[in-house]
Write a structure and sequence with these properties.
Length: 625
């Protein structure tokens, strides 16, 4: 059980201890931390009750001196639970960033390093730099992983007692270290003896990371669950030539294919089957070009071209920016700058869009996110949406979910779900609902699943002459600034569901008087947790606020996973396209079914990765770690 549940007076103790620190000079706070570190090393635990309370008091006082405010009791309780190793559910806007920093202060006493993990590099750099004065005040070295850092800078960041960075960068740095270790294992027989005879030392390597002890993960459900369906794969240039012409020929051949005659896409596996006749006909396009170099079987080129043409949609699965095809994260709507599909699929999409076709890459090392994070001695984290995923946290990571109450009562009002037969009817209803709230001075945040839907809704707003801003999926300081202003009276902000995640939306007085921020979910996500994250953007810290979900028969969730429900919506629609029915329970059941299937897929991926690792170790006869 977390310590604070056995110590109901923990917050009171921390508050009293913090008051005793008020008279200390800044340098004396560092001395206090040094003393606690010595005691923690002797006890081999930084979460012993007295050490925990004292370290939380020191961290709270440092935060007060730097930022000028005192932490709430629930933040102290949350920090204690995170330091102990739990998944803490705290509502959006409750100050999870400070909770993570406070827990990191305690766990840094061990001297083994704490990784504070965020969902993207912008948040890691923002939080790290914002909190640097707090850690410096306590004499705790802080490092931040930066995308453009040199190897030496990366090593220094990992050597610090607290290291901030995005989850994927920790994983990729681990894979890079594995390649270094593998190169040592592959040293030819006798090389070490010859080197020793020549006075040289072979086999010593300098790695980026030190052993992984403690990870504190912000938005832990996104990092450990939602993103876990995609393994971490470190790629490099493929050996041999990679001719771009076959991708273009495959694109042209597939454009003449007839679905259900030349090929079929099986449901729900989405496996692509091509007829022998279609393959034979397409091979004639290669007959007159014997000089072409194929880097994979011709049928694979065709399957990739079919997938690019029929399954991957522009401004939903990818975006084209300055002649580059960039993948869109299906969980967040964010655009990845440095990721690509493997095995020629990315090149097939580039050919489809007539963009520059880049050389294909090959996998140098891979690991599932589950197996990477299982290597930490202890995991913990925070999110606003852990409830509902307790079983997977427990079975995969041995983590317990602990909900923490809000500091102030939540005043959020959820309006009844509205259902429609068509996309156009739904968009018009959203636009007119937004116009009404805009006239009343209420700010509106409209969350969309895709970039394309954001553009379509923007057209509807322009038709009604409603001033608004549209955010793309790039997470940067400009986006955070725009999102932070979404709480101004009458503001209309259209964004992909997770845009600006981690940025606080503050209401001005006029917006608060008009009812606070209103959030519109334009389309239910396959994961109900993503919808809850979006809805959680309103009514923070006791502010007023409201939310409403819109759904239609053409939404991907309904069209793909509940075609019977789509037909029912079309039959029951009124002349304006709206249906007088409550689909809240139906949508929830669909999401729960999909989430269970996705959980099974993640479990299967983990088992496959473990099996591949065992095979690799057996074949190599050596373990890298």
């Amino acid at each position: 059980m977390p310590l604070f549940t056995r110590m109901p007076d923990l917050a009171d103790r921390v508050r009293q201890l913090r008051k005793s620190l008020l008279a200390l000079r800044d340098a004396e706070l560092q001395w206090e931390v040094s003393e606690l570190r010595e005691r923690a090393l002797m006890l081999t635990s930084s979460t012993e009750s007295n050490l925990l309370a004292r370290s939380l008091a020191l961290g709270s006082e440092a935060i007060r001196r730097v930022f000028g405010f005192e932490l709430h009791d629930v933040q102290i309780q949350g920090a204690a639970a995170v330091a102990h190793g739990d998944v803490v559910q705290m509502q959006t806007g409750e100050g999870k960033t400070m909770v993570a920093a406070l827990a990191a202060t305690n766990r840094s006493l061990s001297g083994r390093g704490v990784h504070v993990i965020t969902t993207n590099s912008y948040l890691a750099e923002r939080d790290g730099e914002e909190l640097r004065p707090v850690f410096e005040l306590l004499g705790i070295p802080l490092g931040v992983l930066r995308q453009d850092a040199t190897l030496a800078e990366t090593r220094r960041a990992y050597a610090a007692e607290v290291t901030y960075g995005p989850g994927y960068q920790f994983g990729f740095d681990y894979l890079k270290d594995q390649l270094v270790l593998r190169s040592v294992v592959d040293v030819p027989l006798g090389s070490q003896l010859r080197a020793c005879m020549n006075g040289q030392r072979v086999g010593e390597v300098s790695l980026r990371q030190r052993p992984r002890d403690m990870a504190i993960i912000d938005e832990i459900d996104s990092v450990l669950l939602d993103e876990a369906s995609t393994p971490l794969i470190l790629s490099g240039a493929a050996s041999g030539a990679d001719d771009t012409v076959p991708y273009e020929i495959a694109r042209d051949c597939v454009s003449r294919f007839v679905e259900d005659t030349d090929f079929t896409i099986e449901s729900p596996s989405q496996r692509i089957l091509i007829s022998i006749d279609a393959v034979t006909r397409s091979q004639q396009a290669l007959a007159g070009r014997p000089q072409l170099c194929l880097s994979r079987p011709w049928a694979t080129y065709l399957r990739n071209a079919i997938q690019a043409q029929y399954r991957l949609l522009r401004n939903e699965h990818y975006a084209v920016i300055e002649d580059e095809v960039r993948i869109v994260d299906q969980n967040t709507g964010r655009i990845f700058v440095d990721r690509s599909w493997r095995d020629g699929l990315h090149q097939a999409v580039q050919a489809k869009e007539h963009a520059t076709i880049t050389p294909s890459e090959t996998s140098l090392a891979r690991i599932t996110r589950q197996r990477y994070f299982q290597q930490y001695t202890q995991l913990a984290g925070l999110t606003g949406t852990a409830i509902g995923a307790e079983a997977e946290f427990r079975s995969t990571y041995s983590l317990r979910v602990l909900p923490i109450a809000t500091a102030r009562p939540c005043l959020r009002q959820i309006a009844p779900l509205r259902a429609f037969s068509t996309l156009s009817a739904k968009r018009q209803a959203i636009a007119h609902n937004t116009a009404h709230r805009h006239r009343c001075g209420q700010p509106v945040l409209i969350g969309t699943r895709t970039i394309e839907e954001s553009r379509q809704l923007s057209e509807c707003m322009r038709a009604l002459r409603l001033p608004h801003v549209v955010l793309n999926g790039l997470q940067d300081a400009d986006e955070a600034t725009i999102v932070s202003q979404a709480g101004h009276a009458g503001a209309i902000t259209i964004a992909t569901n997770m845009a600006g995640r981690g940025t606080d939306i503050k209401l001005n007085a006029e917006a608060r008087a008009a009812g606070g921020l209103h959030v519109i979910v334009t389309e239910p996500h396959t994961s109900q947790r993503v919808d809850r994250q979006l809805i959680g953007r309103c009514s923070r810290q006791g502010d007023p606020g409201s939310a409403q979900v819109f759904v239609c028969a053409e939404d991907q969730l309904i069209r793909t996973h509940a075609p019977g429900l789509a037909n029912r919506l079309r039959r029951r629609a009124e002349s304006d396209g709206e249906c007088d029915c409550d689909l809240t329970a139906d949508v929830l059941r669909i999401q729960q079914r999909i989430e269970k299937e996705q959980s099974r897929q993640r479990t299967a991926l983990l088992k496959q990765d473990e099996w591949l690792d065992r095979v690799r170790k057996i074949l190599s006869g050596a373990e890298t770690e």
